[in-house]
Amino acid sequence: MAAKLNGPIGEHSGRVLAGPTNPMVTPLLTDLYQFTMAYAYWKAGKHNERAVFDLYFRKNPFGGEYTIFAGLEECIRFIANFKLSEDEIDFVRESLSPSCEDGFYDYLRGVDCSGVEVYAITEGSVVFPKVPLLRVEGPVAVVQLLETPFLNLINYASLVATNAARHRFVAGESKMLLEFGLRRAQGPDGGIGASKYCYMGGFHATSNVAAGKLFGIPLRGTHSHAFVSSFMSPDEIIDKSLRSSDSQSTCEDFVSLAQTWLSKIQWSNSLNGTFGETNQSELAAFTSYALAFPDNFLALVDTYDVMRSGIPNYCAVALALNDLGYKAAGIRLDSGDLAYLSCEARKIFRTIEKEFGVPGFGKTNITASNDLNEETLDALNKQGHEVDSFGIGTYVVTCYAQAALGCVFKLVEINNQPRIKLSEDVTKVSIPCKKRSYRLYGKEGYPLVDIMTGENEPPPKVGERILCRHPFNESKRAYVVPQRVEELMKCFWSGSPGGIREDLPPLKDIRDRCITQLRKMRPDHMRRLNPTPYKVSVSAKLYEFIHFLWLNEAPVGELQ
Fold first, then answer.
1. How far apart are CA 218 and CA 197, in angstroms?
2. How far apart are CA 330 and CA 323, in angstroms?
3. Across the strands, what pairs with 205?
4. Is pLDDT at 497 greater than 90 in this prediction?
5. What pLDDT is recorded for position 495?
6. By three-state DSSP, how is residue 411 classified?
7. N- or C-end of the chain: fewer Cβ atoms within 10 A?
8. Is the pLDDT of residue 10 over 70?
9. Is the distance from CB of 522 to CB of 446 less than 8 angstroms?
10. Contact 234, 243 (CB under 8 A)
11. What are 433-448's pLDDT values in tens digits?
């Protein structure tokens, strides 16, 4: 990935870097206590003290052992445009105590992120608990104002990208995944974000037209049950003509052609009278849709009866299109026993290909929808099915299985002095000081462990044994001889003029990175049930420092 000079510059065009996708992401999209702390810092003369914060999470979601990092680009776009307007400053003044001095609001007028540095793991990476996703350095008051928006932009993005990746893993790489969740998403922002981050997590397309325009995500969609039931009979079709795909001829009565094919199917020797009378209004709807979209005819076949009506009506229209040089796109099943229906439909498609000599008809695409989730995908795999594509909505976009990821933003250093946050719950103890993070790979090419070191420690070297320690459990430790060492954190925003920072990659590249990284993970870390925990460690030197600082900061009790 190419690095470039810092500044609010577009990653491809040289224009000013645009703000976040959602215009509501402004400096006021924060918690009130960020402004009260900023005032208290300013009042105490501490507001310009150099602070370092880590953004990380404590536990992988959905009972799994990996997470996909997402939302970084939106964070960088936010700080590139961070500036409080006069209206916003006036509102802050109204919201704080009347005792706050005017000088603070003069200070806010000059606040921007030119003094801030952001180091981060590349978006789309597989990440693990405790390892910082972002390290944010800068004046303490300014960085505190970034805390809530950064958490807001990363928590849901990473959660839904992980959810999408898990659905993709269960469905299998050969299956196409379509995100159909806009109507069930938590508002417009939830719908737009879900489409973007489902695509990042490995989905292939979305039904969300706005997301397609904003992010260049491929669009997919056909028709609903309402379209099918809106037709009463073939007599409603006025323009019945259809030009062939090569424009060399015209079928003047495509409706009759479809009816002829339906009769052939009904009297087929191979199908042994499988089909009787079908619903003629459904046939009219399919025919009408094919006339509108002859090169992309995909029919929803469960409005009345899948096997008795939907499948034969689809086949009749698809075969009529074939006569004119078009290839139908397939069917969608939205109810019923998806495993059974897909298998039966596949048998019929193969029979028709063989009897009528239509190459490729047996491989007709079968799409399934109907409140699918990880569990139903897993069940379909175990039952055996013939589905090629899955349309998934509610469960993926709402992250129904887990409401939030739980990222946190913790101070780890101020004025070059390491700081630690203690808790009776050891999982909530922070790892102090400015750190560097590495991923160590073994002989088989799989990642073995992530290790954090102090900023000034020498990095791990290929072929040299290093002691990896659990941050808090002294008995958990192991030597590792890495075959490859990857440093995880890179600078994506540099406060110094002319500083070097990483470019923001296109969404397609982030998606490719996510898929590639998931393929490199050891299978036992990826499985749905009882996955093996991935090891996250600290160097021996950092381990000793954590516990020295812990003992130094924890008050000593006195027994009476």
1. 13
2. 16
3. 178
4. no
5. 76
6. strand
7. C
8. no
9. yes
10. no
11. 999 999 999 999 999 9
Q: Which residues contact 337 (CB under 8 A, 6 or more apart)?
A: none
Q: Which amino acid is at 367?
A: T
Which residue bears the tokens 């001095």? 101
Structure tokens at 393: 């909505």
pLDDT at 16: 67
Q: Helix %, strand %, coil % for the chain, to 5? A: 40, 20, 45
Burial class (CB within 10 angstroms; exposed 0-12, middle 13-18, buried 19+) of 512: middle
Which contacts of 30-33 are long-range, i.e. CB under 8 A and separated by 24 or more positions?
A: 30/145, 30/147, 30/148, 30/149, 31/148, 32/95
Q: Give, in order, the Cα–Cα distances in Å from 54 to each of 28, 141, 439, 533.
A: 22, 15, 18, 22
User: How many Cα atoms occupy the beta-carbon half-sphere of 311 within 13 Å?
Assistant: 27
- In 3D space, the residue among 193, 402, 187 whose CA is nearest the CA of residue 179 turns out to be 193
The DSSP code sequence of 166-216 is: HHHHHH-TTSEEEE--GGGSSHHHHHHHHHHHHHHTT--EES-HHHHHHH-
Structure tokens at 34: 């960020």
The pair of three-digit structure tokens given for residue 208, joined into one six-digit string: 């969300």
pLDDT attached to residue 270: 86
Tokens of 237: 């079709």
Strand partners, 392: 179
Structure token digits, residue 123: 């978006």
Question: Distance between CA atoms of 197 and 191, rounded to whole angstroms?
Answer: 10
Question: Which pair of structure tokens corresponds to residue 379?
Answer: 């069940």
What average pLDDT does this structure show over 142-163?
98
User: What b/e sequence results for 320-335 when a residue is b if at least 16 CB atoms lie within 10 Å of its CB, and e otherwise?
Assistant: bbbbbebbbbbbbbbe
- Band (274; pLDDT cuts 50, 70, 90): confident
Share of the chain above pLDDT 90, in %: 93
Contact 222, 300 (CB under 8 A): yes
- The model carries a pTM of 0.94
Both tokens assigned to 457: 């420690």
pLDDT level of residue 337 (50, 70, 90 thresholds):
very high
- Nearest CA to 440 out of 410, 483, 401 is that of 483
